[in-house]
Design goal:
This protein is an alpha/beta fold. The chain has helices at 10-22, 33-41, 59-68, 84-92, 105-119, 153-164, 172-179, 190-202, and strands spanning 2-6, 26-30, 47-51, 75-79, 97-100, 127-130, 133-136, 141-144, 147-149, 207-210, 214-217.
């Protein structure tokens, strides 16, 4: 998932970006309200972490402008203020959640994941199931049947994009947009590299290439034990 952090405290912004990147998110950071509004209005983000006290345009106005323009991207507001009035004002402008500084990083991540699940229209459960594949997005664990599959951070992020839209074709550009941050200017074929890695771990039939359109995660069936002897023919164990 791709996040935008709009925070003028640069040390805090860098710390949040580093932590969230380690959690598997693609993260962009800006320090000005007007730039934050411009970036968020592009519609490429899954969630915006928005400070209230910002130069250029405060967070209340940024949030209100986004909602007035019809943008429904979840917004988590951050502020050094406290009190019921400040929280109510933030929520009244269209924010989805609110955290007062100082806050627990663990709570921040939990709130972000909850908002992303809510945006997907799913239940509060962090587990995404596609056939025999189970992804626990909170614990960052993947199982095929009874076997746990070890994935790197980027492999998990690519698979998550496919799993959240299982049955649909997800374009290479869409995966790049949500898994790699704004600063990435490398070879777009990096997506193919990670899809190939996932096929080696999940089985060649797990991800279908739709020529000229993108990739589709298939709902693989069957139950099996952890060893290759009991695995179905499309499955191969992690190297």
């Amino acid at each position: 998932m791709r996040l935008l952090i709009v925070e003028d405290e640069k040390r805090l912004a860098r710390s949040l970006a580093a932590g969230l990147t380690a959690e598997g998110f693609a993260v962009d950071v800006v320090h000005d309200g007007l730039e934050g509004l411009h970036r968020a209005a592009e519609g490429t983000y899954d969630l915006v972490v928005l400070d209230i006290m910002l130069p250029g345009m405060n967070g209340y106005r940024v949030c209100a402008a986004l909602r007035a323009a019809g943008h429904e991207t979840p917004i988590l507001m951050l502020t050094a203020k406290d009190g019921e009035y400040d929280e109510a004002e933030g929520l009244d402008t269209g924010a989805d959640d609110y955290l007062t500084k100082p806050f627990s990083y663990v709570v921040l991540v939990a709130r972000i994941r909850a908002l992303l699940r809510r945006r997907g229209g799913g239940s509060a459960s962090p587990v995404v199931t596609v056939g025999a594949l189970r992804m626990d997005t909170a614990a960052r664990r993947v199982h095929l049947g009874e076997a746990e599959i070890t994935l790197t951070t980027k492999e998990f992020a690519v698979l998550e994009q496919l799993a959240l839209r299982s049955g649909q074709v997800v374009s290479k550009a869409d995966i790049l947009e949500h898994v790699w941050d704004f600063a990435y200017d490398g070879d777009p074929n990096i997506v193919e590299v990670y899809v190939s890695a996932l096929r080696r771990k999940l089985g060649a039939a797990a991800i279908r290439t739709v020529r000229g359109a993108g990739y589709r995660l298939e709902a693989l069936g069957g139950r099996y034990g952890p060893g290759p002897r009991s695995a179905p023919p499309w499955w191969s164990p992690s190297p």
